[in-house]
Design goal:
- The structure is a single chain.
- The chain is an alpha+beta fold and 145 residues long.
- It contains three helices and six strands, in the order ααββαββββ.
- The two termini are 28 Å apart.
Length: 145
């Protein structure tokens, strides 16, 4: 179900990912979602493409959970449109709670108000790359999650 307030998106996103709940995750997104992802493909268009990638992602986790943490969340909204951007960390944990690995990226969400609530219409993730090496850079200590 869409959310009543754009500021609730990071928590709703984190809960759906942790629970590996595909339907709760997809409920955050509009049917015509367009995603520019930092991983694997340039873009995904439409909720069915998102369903496919989300089902694959959650299915690949086995008994692991993913803890999502957002930091430096900034929200700008009007009556019908909102943008959120944040630094986001995905931390995989084992069934017994041990940290396994983590990755960080930047995220921007664009949301639209519908009669049912707010949904994401565009998501953009990115990672900074070094001009010298072309390799992805880790977060600087002052922006670490």
């Amino acid at each position: 179900m869409p959310i009543p307030d754009p500021a609730q998106l990071p928590a709703a996103y984190a809960e759906a990912v942790y629970a590996r709940n595909v339907e709760a995750f997809l409920a955050l997104y509009a049917e015509n979602i367009r995603i520019f992802d930092a991983w694997e493909s340039w873009q995904a268009a439409g909720k069915e493409a998102l369903r496919h990638s989300t089902t694959e992602w959650f299915g690949s986790l086995g008994d692991e959970k993913v803890v999502v943490t957002c930091q430096d969340i900034q929200v700008v909204s009007s009556d019908t449109l909102a943008t959120l951007h944040a630094l986001i960390e995905y931390r995989a944990v084992s069934a017994d709670g041990q940290d396994l690995r983590a990755m960080q990226e930047r995220v921007t969400w664009v949301m639209e108000r519908t009669t049912a609530g707010w949904v994401v219409t565009h998501q953009h993730t990115s990672l900074p790359a070094s001009l010298q090496t072309g390799k992805v850079m880790k977060f600087a200590p002052d922006s670490a999650i």
